Amino acid sequence: MSNNLYGKGQSSRQGQTGHSLQIKFPHMSTGVIISCIILLTFVIMAIFPGSVAPHDPNSVDLNNRLAKPDMEHPFGTDHHGRDILSRVIHGTQTSLVTALSVVAVGVVLGTFIGLTAGFFGGIVDQTIMRTVDLFLAFPGTILSIALVGLFGASLFNIVLALSVMWWVSYARIIRGSVLQVKEKDFVKGARLMGGNSYYIIRRHVLPNVLSPIFALATLDVGSAILHITGLSFLGLGAQPPTPEWGAMIQGSIAFMETAPQTMIFPGLCIVITVLSFNCLGDWLKERIDPVRVEKADFQ
To answer: Cross-referenced NCBIfam families, in alphabetical order (predicted)?
Structure first.
């Protein structure tokens, strides 16, 4: 790879430890740039919702119920007279934080399990992969609904329920990458020099298997948002009056004909955010070593 993230000063070190982050960053397309701008905007809204939102998202005004969009309320108001724009902005924080939490737990747990299975092999690998197969045999959405129904409806329980299934894909990819990397000369050399398993994994294996995770995690944020909003739509996620996109859509079903803005704007946020994450994730996937990702994914 001629264009790496380490620069010329570390080229010799890379030759000893392998290509730890095989990602290329050429010129971005217009779609990717727009997606980055959109995601940056949503991130700012999620970090500073109180500064961006024009009104209190939970302020009730029964005299101004289901108002049409105007200068004071650009997105209109809902059936409690609450400003939809403010609730959408605060809902950005709820939806993004929950989705990122699910993906983060999946990445950490899947990476640890995949590293353990791929590096140690034998009975450890067989036991872990049979467990992975067992999880894959269950429909993820149905299992998530069952777990949330068992533990109670809340965003925290959604994170737990989705994380139970989310680590599986990461574990498989990491395991496949580890099976390739551990046969490299620099790993064998580290073993001959007396390096213990922890040192070899931390110094030589882990940095060389993370690159496929960047693209998958980015794509998974969009998928997690869809799962979270879907569970909230079923009444299993954020509870009133917490602003959350799926819960907002669920609460506006009865008014979709008389006040469609109550459903349109939260729905647009979901669509735009998911498409932006997917566009950025596809771009990252194309920049990662395609042969390596393909081999890791099918091990």
So the answer is: Opp2C
